[in-house]
Write a structure and sequence with these properties.
The protein is α+β, with helices and mostly antiparallel strands. It contains 9 helices and 19 strands.
Length: 371
Amino acid sequence: IEKIINASSNEGDLVADFFCGSGTTLAVAEKMGRKWIGSDLGRFSIHTTRKRMIGVQRELKKAGKDFRAFEILNIGKYEREKFLTVNENLREEEKRIQRVNKEKEFIKLILSAYKAEPVDSFNTFVGKKRDRLVAVGSIDTPVTNDFLEKVISECKEKKITKADVLGFDYEMGLDFSARGGSAFGGERTKNFGLDIQSKVIPREVFDKKAVEKGQVKFYDVAYIEVKPIIRGRGNAKEVAIELTDFSVFYNQDNTGEVEDKLQSGGSKVVIENGQVIKISKDKQTGIISKEVLTKKWTDWIDYWSVDFAFESKKEIVRVAGEKIGEEKEEWTGSYIFENEWQSFRTKKDRTLELTSAFKDAQKSKMKIAIK
């Protein structure tokens, strides 16, 4: 790769790899002083590449060489595009009708994948699965605190005790701290006798075959707990972030079914109540054994990072203007997360720092984001 880049480009040129895999081409390009763009459909690929590029930057910094910052951008919600777009050639009323029909089609798809039946006569609930009512968040925006408050209000008003909330994304800052499940509001909902479970809609809902075979799994929302550490006073004040807990409660695969189908001498890893478990079947005796691989909550984490000034960089996009060929910039309402500090595991070093470096905190109020 070094020979190819050297023969076909000069220092400062742009190298692009649109199937970047583990990021080898990008790493070589960075070391050779080239600009680069990488993309991949696999999330794990991008995660691996990110760690690799940070490693390259640390090497360059140690050697006293310059390096450029990089951003990770998620371009578009491809699977949802069908339900987000409307025919712009239609009249306003026709557009509205098309949006309503697409929303109904979307809800029907989600309920089918969740194996729930549609229901009427509710404000927030659209389905029912056994003894639990089901609410579905918007297709293009995260589930918000306001939406969940409406769910709770309807539960209290209509004496509903069990409900599930399904969403592609969840707004930052929601309280998922109830032990034993991702129940919104923690003790507050328990005091009202409410059992509200929040689950993530997986991308597999758009795979027709997976839905028909019942292979789509809706996982409970995982949550992190952090603690700010503040030292100093006035202009000398500093803040660091300590990661104190990461909680997951979901299940992947049915343990009983895996044990029944397991061949002698074989093994399979499953997730049961938030624990990664290796199930093995002895070749000689046929005895089933289980080994818990996640000994503590930190075993779940491979990488975490902190943005100490989350609202400092607005997400700006270019959109078509009123005139042909005209473009204008608009704020999406979101912010770009910048990795100001991060800790991650590598093959050689499996340790993970749980407390970030200290950062100046002279402002009276600052929003810190953790990923």
